[in-house]
Amino acid sequence: MGELNDFRLATGGEKPELRDVVTKDLHEDEILVSMGPQHPATHGVLRVVLKLSGETIVDAYPDIGYLHRGVEKIAEGWTYPQFIPMTDRLDYVAAMGNELTYVLGVERLMGLEVPPRAAYIRVIMAELQRVASHLVWLGAFGTDMGALTMFLYCFREREKVIDLFELATGARLTYSYMRIGGVRNDLPDGFVEKTRAFIKLMRQRLKEYDDLFTGNRIFEARTKGVGPLTAEQAIALSATGPTLRGSGVPYDVRRTDPYLIYDKLQFEVPVGKNGDTYDRYICRMQEIRESLKLVEQCLDALPEGEVMAKVPKVIKPPAGEVYALTEAPRGALGVYIVSNGTANPYRLHWRAPTFANLQIIPDTTRGFKIADAVAIMGSIDVVLGEVDR
Amino acid sequence: MSPEAWEEVKVEPGKYLETMKALRKGGLNQVSDLTAVDWKDRGVIEVIVHLLSLKPGEDPRNTLGRRVRVKTEVERDRPSIDSVTPLWPGVNWYEREVYDLFGVDFPGHPDLRRIMTHEGFVGHPLRKDFVDERPKRQRVIPSR
Coil, helix or strand for A138? Predict the structure, then answer.
């Protein structure tokens, strides 16, 4: 079976398995512990094999792929619009950001401009999604740190964002709202008012979170100085998003390569100094505030008009390639599309931010305790749906 | 500069490592992405690397320097290209992914293993001629 596909590598020989890698150079005092793929602190089906000496981590080996669905292969058999719902199922905590990246990529390939109102609506949705996504992260991170209250508080507020999305799109998690050329429908009546009310509420609640969490001595003891990453390390390990910005590199695609209308909007890019778990936390908390500011500016300046551009019935982008990057809640999310002029993508590659960010685990956990590994993994904000694809 | 604008460099597989070393020295310190495209009709697999030059600091507008896209074409029958993981540790998993899904070998890679599929998986699914030879699943409800 499989002779056609199973050719030998040019260098020959069998490649090792994870078992061989972790047992190599294993000292007699060290033990191996497999954390995951079903572990409450790993946020999904992430497996990390820890090499321990007592309770201290000597090395860590992340093992992914448990959720691999072959999305990139599936894309080759589907038309361009058909793939939009699939993007929702990659990073399912921030589905709007995925749709946005994908449709931007196809639009750039086609040379299509979206109407101004659609661009504003897209930014509103993307930034609300960032708030919702960071709230999920904060709740889960709080749980990892033993602060179970955080989970309840954060999900209470996230529910409000989900309600807004439900009002506008009819769906609560997988929206399929962005379309090639615009968005599916205009904002419904009452959306703007309800969003303004949410922003007001959220600002009050953020103060509560700070009181509960940011100054908390137990929380600080568990996160300050834990899992530090220097700027050079973070850049070289392909980290992006809050994981990179926590280390003091203000790389934000919304600023460096402004897409849609981000060049017209005012916002700060929060950066950390020490690159530890605490700084990554602070970056995300600030980002929620900046996102609220962005949504407010968009609501103030929301123009009237169409929400869909004129698009052909069958979408056949001209032959070519595009690498579209956007700033998703977890980092720089990219899509590389190669078109050969037909209605199906010839090749579609998804550059998932947490796929790269997970590579910081060995470097950041070495020398720390198992409980710290939970904090460090939590601070990456991993969603395995986009890692494994 | 528009977001689509990437400096494009096309290199022969023999000069790939040399070019990448020069780019690394030239300040391109992050691999944004490494992937491949199977051009079955031409008998080549194209490896595409997107490189960024990032700089720590205060002003986010000065963070990003150059953007370079490097392309190499390797033979489809015995695809092999030098690993650049020693230059950028972050490219490690990207090369493993291309090895797993396209069967491209990366000599010099410290830990080349399958990453998406399991250890016993046969074949490289993103190749255009990949055939899934597992038995078809039985339908629970027979189709009419």
Answer: helix
Which residue is closest to A345 within chain B, CA to CA?
A: B37
- Can you give the residue ranges of every domain in chain B? 7-78
Whether B119 and A18 lie within 8 Å, measured CB to CB: yes
Q: A11: how many CB neighbours lie within 10 A of its CB?
A: 13
Order of strands across the sheet that contains A331-339: A320-328, A331-339, A347-351
Q: Is residue B79 within 8 Å of B72, Cβ to Cβ? A: no
Sign of the alpha-carbon dihedral angle for A5, A11, A16, A22: negative
Reduce the DSSP state of residue B53 to 3 states and report it: strand
Query: ipTM beyond 0.90?
Result: no
A313 three-state secondary structure: coil
Domains along chain A?
71-388 (1.10.645.10)
State the smallest CA–CA distance between residue A330 and chain B in angstroms. Answer: 14
Does residue B139 belong to the interface with chain A, where contact is any CB pair within 8 Å?
Answer: no
| The predicted structure's pLDDT at residue A289 | 92
Q: Choosing among B116, B130, B134, which should be mutated to test the A contact, i.e. which has the most A CBs within 10 A?
A: B116
B13-57 per-position pLDDT tens digit: 888 988 999 988 888 889 999 999 999 888 899 999 999 888 877
pLDDT above 80 for B119: no
HSE value, Cβ hemisphere, 13 Å, CA-based, for A173:
7
Strands A182-183 and A178-179, by their bridges, are antiparallel
pLDDT of residue B2: 59
Residue A42 banded pLDDT, cuts 50, 70, 90: low
Helices of type H across B8-134: 16-25, 92-102
Its pTM stands at 0.87
CATH architecture of B7-78: 2-Layer Sandwich (3.30)
**Nearest CA-CA distance, residue B143 and chain A, Å:** 23
Q: Which of the four pLDDT bands, split at 50, 70 and 90, describes residue B3? A: low
What is the tally of helices (H) and strands (E) in chain B? 2, 4
pLDDT tens, position by position, A98-148:
999 999 999 998 888 899 999 999 999 999 999 999 999 988 888 888 778
